[in-house]
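DM from R.C. (forwarded with permission)

"hey, sorry to bug you on a friday — could you get me a structure for this? deadline for the figure draft is monday and I only need the backbone to look sensible"
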Amino acid sequence: MSERDVVMWGIHAGRTGDADNLFLKKNVIALGWREMGDLGRNKDREEFKKAVAETYPDAKPGAIANFAGQLYRFIYELKKDDLVIYPSKRDREVHIGIVTGEYKYDTKHEEDYPNHRDVKWIKSLPRTAFTQGALYEIGSAMSFFQVKNYADEFKSKVENKMVPDVVSKEEEVELVPEDIEEAARDFILKRLSQELKGHPFADFVAHLLGKMGYRTRVSPEGPDGGIDIIAHKDELGFEPPIIKVQVKSTSGSIGDPEVSSLYGKVGQNEFGLFVTLGSFSNQSKSFAKSKSNLRLIDGNELVSLILEHYESFDSGYKGLIPLKKVYIPETFEE
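My reply, with the result:
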């Protein structure tokens, strides 16, 4: 295929990511607007506008044009061999695929998302692998959109080429309120993955646990037997609960063998805690659910804990992750 003919597109799986399983397990991308019926009946943009206006009579003119444009592009401008970028809200991975099929209307698998295009997923990367500007672009408020400004960065990931992993001044864009929390989460994970690799990450997790009311002992650098931190409530560490903590500063997925290995070191009346900047496999999560004294904290939950206890952090860690409290208006329906 000719590289210049390949266009890159971004898509979301609904407002809350509810079509995530459909996308990744059925190897499709899909749009909703199920009240519209089979979109293939509309042949040009004017027909799409008319159909949207008839289906949603309360929609404003700007919204009608926006919806019609997205649907038209999904049916007619999206071509086989184009690349598609899907930032999942469920696993917080950025999935990259190649479009392999033409438009089809299918209500059997997911009636709320009947408009499909077949996709072959070829790459999944953590959000920390991308610059902030690229993450802003694929955080578009639209369900389906063309990726233009940072298309080369995404293409470089497909081709395994290196790109600068820093936030440049060109990436300092204005954010709408609903983007701010997502941007802050991306920033925190990126800073931790860049600045606290290996043993320093264990020190950071111990610091966080300390702010949560635990006393901690961090294993010295070198072989630690799979236990990076011992946490406890009493001053000497004799009284239960005793928590054995393992940490990983990598952004990949932690599998069942690593989680099971930690649990094998947890004795009677002890607890196991696994903290990672990345995620956990389905097998490891299933294993942890079956153990009442084992807890897994992935990158997303770690950020939530950081935001909750940030005000009490030491100045050194605040300097590492500089954040500023802001007030934004609550969203409301007009």
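R.C.: lifesaver. The chain has a mean pLDDT of 85.
me: no worries. The CA atoms of residues 176 and 321 lie 21 Å apart.
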